[in-house]
Design a protein that fits this description.
By secondary structure, the protein is mainly alpha-helical. The protein contains five helices and no strands. The termini are far apart.
Length: 114
């Protein structure tokens, strides 16, 4: 019985770390079920941009928030306009990726991507 309890505790701990919620979402008390609609946690599926936009607003709204970056707006770039998938750069359960940085030096005009 003790062994089973230990396995259960370690499984919960491992699951919690693998799918940890980013600090800015923890700050607004976001729970897994705020994004994932499946009844059982083990049935959770990867989300698409529409899930992000249901809280963050339209891609156009996000692009407008960064209008001050002029031609360097990652949410309305000369390459993709406002059509980029959120998950191209932002990831909830793993480190985010600054795609712009693959070709441009963004250190002077872009914050760390959350």
């Amino acid at each position: 019985m003790q062994k089973l309890l230990m396995i259960l505790i370690l499984s919960i701990f491992a699951l919690g770390n693998e799918f940890a919620i980013k600090p800015h979402h923890v700050d607004v008390k976001l729970k897994c079920t705020d994004c994932h609609k499946e009844a059982n946690e083990k049935d959770y599926k990867a989300l698409d941009s529409n899930s992000c936009l249901s809280c963050h607003g339209s891609k156009e709204k996000l692009a407008k928030r960064l209008d001050f970056l002029k031609g360097k707006n990652p949410h309305n770039s000369i390459h993709d306009n406002a059509n980029l998938n959120c998950y191209t750069c932002h990831n909830e359960h793993k480190p985010s990726f600054n795609m712009c940085n693959t070709c441009h030096n963004t250190k002077t005009w872009m914050k760390e991507i959350k």
